[in-house]
Amino acid sequence: MIIYGRNAVAEAIRGPRAVERVWVGERGPEPDWPSSLVVIEAGAHQLADRCGSTSHQGVVAEVEEFGYSDADSLLSESDAFVLILDEIQDPHNLGAVCRVAEAAGISGVVIPRHRAAEVTGAVCRASAGAVEHLRVARVRNIADYIDAAGKAGLWSYGAAGEADARWDSVDWTGPVALVMGSEGRGLRPRVAKACDLLISLPIEGRVDSLNVATATSAIVYEAVRQRSI
């Protein structure tokens, strides 16, 4: 698997994945990289050709494939906080959401196996390497997984712009799951129905919605605030 970007590569080197080799541009390797790391000098065009992007920041790496976690294991924690994503398709959105999730210390992120972005080099770059330290699981059916979460004792809150309940009026303490919908469409009907309660963020300006990563951040940190009291 090819990843790129200084933070993404640096976190991969720090994380559990094996890093096979790193290609660097003019800035060269970082001084704290292990001496055993295979580092190859390359020009900017060579780096772009290797990773398929000009956003490489002078660093590209070949690493082992991303290891997805077991989805059921995320539900077994006594104080689980799971983020469930319903068909987010933009890799940059998935990466940004994963960065928020890792920074907030949640149990893990669950994504669908089909019709959704998966962890790629672009997602690693957008997450600033956060995916290297975050459990990400894939499931066949999101609604079924929400049902399984309920049976495991988690209360599921789904984010929906039309919901009456405010994001800060509900109880985020204890085992919970936050379910976020896809870009534009939001939660699919069956997924929304599987949630215990739908919640919304207030929109006071002229735009009628928030980017999914921005909305996730606002809701997650309200949960973190409540859970830290």
Structure explained in plain terms:
This protein has helices at residues 6-14, 44-51, 91-104, 121-126, 142-151, 189-194, 212-228, and strands spanning 2-4, 19-24, 39-41, 59-63, 81-85, 108-112, 136-139, 155-159, 165-166, 176-180, 197-200. It is of the alpha/beta class and 229 residues long. It has 2 domains: 2-63, no CATH class; 72-228, SPOUT methyltransferase, trefoil knot domain (Alpha/beta knot, 3-Layer(aba) Sandwich), CATH 3.40.1280. Helix 3 packs parallel to helix 7 (212-228). The longest helix is centred in the last third of the chain and has 17 residues, at 212-228. The radius of gyration is 19 Å and the shape is elongated.
Largest sheet: 7 strands, parallel
Shape: elongated
Q: Kindly provide the name of the CATH class of the largest domain.
A: Alpha Beta
Helix content: 25-40%
How do the strands of the widest beta sheet line up side by side? 7-6-5-10-8-11-9
Structural class: alpha/beta
Give Rg in angstroms: 19 Å
- For the termini, the CA-CA separation is 41 Å
Order of helices and strands: EHEEHEEHEHEHEEEHEH
Count all strands and give the number.
11
Taken as a percent bin, the fraction of beta residues is: 15-25%
Please tell me the overall pLDDT: 95
- Which assembly state applies to the chains in this document? single chain
Helices, by number, come to 7
CATH level-two architecture of the largest domain:
3-Layer(aba) Sandwich
Number of domains: 2
CATH topology of the largest domain: Alpha/beta knot
